[in-house]
């Protein structure tokens, strides 16, 4: 199971590990580089990476980017596709937009842009949107698990 992938950060060998083998991070499978500490989770029930491997700082910025950006589309202020097109345009990205493909500078810019966008919304829009997001987070995790499973099944079918 080793040496199936090269590290996206330092280009050394990366090793595939299971969370059951000692790594705790919420993913069933991860790719982990023992040289630089970079890692990436995998799509549910697969060993397909969710994006590019990232060092700890980049993973931290990705989490902040999702916390800042995702409420824009999850609360209904924009559709998900429109929000992705908006972010791509703001960052000068042509083609597909994925947070997992951004470098540290782009992630920092996205975080600032998303926070600025949310602050510019009218209080009524923002409070209603925040309430919807809070309610969504309080739903049982099974719903998100089933969504992720359906997404993984769709991806498998497209290959």
What class would the helix/strand composition place it in?
alpha+beta
> How far is the N terminus from the C terminus?
22 Å
**What is the beta-strand fraction?**
5-15%
Number of helices: 5
What is the number of domains? 2
Largest sheet data: 4 strands, antiparallel
Report helical residue fraction.
40-55%
Give the low-confidence spans: none
Shape: globular
User: What is the typical, i.e. mean, pLDDT?
Assistant: 80
Radius of gyration: 17 Å
Question: What string gives the helices and strands in order?
Answer: EEEEHHHHH
In short:
This protein is an alpha+beta fold. It is built from 5 helices and 4 strands. Strand 3 (29-32) and strand 4 (39-41) form a beta hairpin.
What would your notes on this structure say?
The protein has 159 residues and is α+β, with helices and mostly antiparallel strands. It folds into 2 domains: 2-41, no CATH class; 56-139, no CATH class. The protein has 5 helices and 4 strands. It has helices at 56-74, 80-91, 104-120, 123-138, 141-158, and strands at 2-6, 13-18, 29-32, 39-41. The chain has a 4-stranded antiparallel β-sheet, with no helix packed on it. β3 and β4 form a beta hairpin. α1 (56-74) packs across α2 (80-91) and α1 (56-74) packs parallel to α3.
């Amino acid at each position: 199971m080793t040496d199936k992938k090269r590290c996206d950060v330092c280009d050394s060998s990366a090793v595939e590990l299971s969370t059951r083998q000692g790594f705790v991070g919420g993913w069933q499978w991860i790719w982990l580089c023992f040289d630089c500490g970079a890692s990436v989770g995998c799509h549910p029930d697969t060993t397909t990476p969710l994006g590019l491997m990232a060092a700890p700082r980049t993973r931290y910025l990705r989490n902040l980017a999702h916390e800042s950006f995702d409420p824009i589309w999850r609360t209904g202020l924009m559709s998900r596709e429109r929000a992705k097109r908006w972010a791509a345009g703001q960052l000068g990205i042509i083609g597909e937009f994925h947070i997992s493909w951004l470098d540290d500078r782009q992630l920092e810019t996205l975080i600032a842009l998303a926070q600025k966008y949310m602050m510019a919304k009218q209080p009524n829009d923002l409070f209603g949107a925040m309430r919807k997001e809070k309610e969504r987070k309080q739903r049982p995790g099974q719903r998100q698990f089933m969504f992720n499973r359906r997404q993984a099944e769709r991806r498998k079918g497209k290959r």
